[in-house]
Design goal:
The complex is a heterodimer of chains A (about 160) and B (about 170). Chain A is mostly helical and about 160 residues long. Helices cover about 60% and strands about 0% of the residues of chain A. Chain A is elongated. Chain B starts with a helix and ends with a helix. Chain B has a single domain, classed as Glutaredoxin, CATH 3.40.30.10. In chain B, strands 5-4-3-6-7 form a 5-stranded mixed β-sheet. A two-stranded antiparallel ribbon of chain B has the order 1-2. The chains are: A mainly alpha (about 160), B alpha/beta (about 170). At the A-B interface, helix 3 and helix 4 of A face helix 4 of B.
């Protein structure tokens, strides 16, 4: 029991376990948070389905360092995004910018959805199929006979 | 007549998917093509006291190859780079990326040195400016210092014969 208490005290006393003590720590934590939030919106180019925040690749490390340095130097998020796209293209941004070459990307799904809704609406509002004219008198007679033969409960008027 | 619309939609989708099969999803088109190669100044691998900057090449077509001793595909393309250098097609400059000078020099000692000179980019900062994301990468830069072609990954015989040699000839004209 004593050991548990001592361990808990030791854990509590560890620097990472507590709220930032000095103002510079607070600034650093804000910066860390900003770097992480930004890196979550950037694609890692080495493992392309991972964000820069999650990736373990060496290049991701370097880019996070670069982002951090630039943030510390007072650059805005937009400026850093511009810095990255200048080097790697719009592909690095998980939220690509709206411009003529990305119109299909941004609006394509809505166009497809609209086309689907229109088709559905047209199908639903179409008048029901007319009676087939080609049924011969013989078939019609046979249908009537079958209906007459059926027990009353199954006959649908 | 009834099937024209679904058939058309299917063909369109099939065309998109077929085109998608032919594209390498790993390949990121570089926005730096047709732009001036970023400036830098880096210490030389062999002589750290001296530095190299793209301006030093001065009005010639040249090729920048990003390599590293830890990069396995760099070994694969190295024989082709040596052949390019021996044939004197284009001056080849090396950028030793995120490497130690000892390992870099050992690599050149083992596999041969096709480069006019190599620079050390220990931190990889210059490589970031060039949009490097997979070593090796190769850039072809024209007399005005504009990047005209970029190869991500090892260069192949096809790339050398089909693209690099004709482009160098055309750019030198």
């Amino acid at each position: 029991m004593k050991l548990v208490v001592v361990s808990l005290v030791v854990i509590w006393a560890l620097p990472g376990g507590r709220v930032a003590a000095s103002p510079s720590d607070e600034v650093n934590m804000d910066l860390d948070g900003r770097v992480r939030a930004f890196a979550r919106q950037v694609r890692c180019l080495v493992c392309q389905n991972e964000t820069l925040a999650d990736s373990q690749a060496g290049l991701a490390d370097d880019l996070r360092r670069e982002i951090r340095d630039q943030m510390r130097a007072g650059q805005t998020d937009d400026e850093i995004a511009a810095y990255l796209t200048q080097r790697y293209g719009d592909f690095v941004l998980y939220r690509p910018p709206l411009k003529p070459s990305t119109y299909v990307l941004w609006f394509g799904p809505f166009v497809l959805l609209g086309a689907g809704v229109l088709t559905l609406a047209r199908l639903l509002t179409q008048p029901p199929m007319p009676h087939p004219a080609g049924v011969s008198a013989r078939l019609r007679k046979r249908a009537h006979r079958l209906l007459d033969e059926a027990p009353p409960s199954t006959v649908v008027e | 007549m009834k099937f024209v619309v679904p058939l058309g939609a299917f063909l369109l989708l099939a065309a998109f998917l077929t085109a998608g099969l032919r594209v390498d999803p790993q390949l990121v088109p570089s926005p730096l093509i047709e732009h001036v190669a970023p400036a830098f100044q880096l210490p030389l691998l062999q002589e750290p006291a001296r530095t190299f900057s793209p301006n030093d090449v001065g009005g010639r077509v040249w090729m920048l190859n990003v390599w590293a001793s830890w990069c396995v595909s760099c070994r694969a393309e190295h024989a082709l780079l040596r052949a390019l250098a021996e044939a004197d097609v284009v001056p080849l400059y090396g950028l030793d990326y995120k490497d130690t000078p000892e390992n870099g020099l050992a690599f050149l000692g083992t596999y041969g040195d096709p480069y006019v000179l190599s620079m050390q980019d220990t931190e990889g900062r210059v490589a970031i400016d060039y949009g490097v994301y997979g070593v090796p990468e190769t850039y072809l830069i024209d007399k005005a210092g504009v990047i005209r072609f970029k190869q991500v990954g090892p260069i192949t015989r096809d790339v050398v014969e089909g693209t690099i040699v004709p482009m160098v000839e055309q750019l030198n004209r």
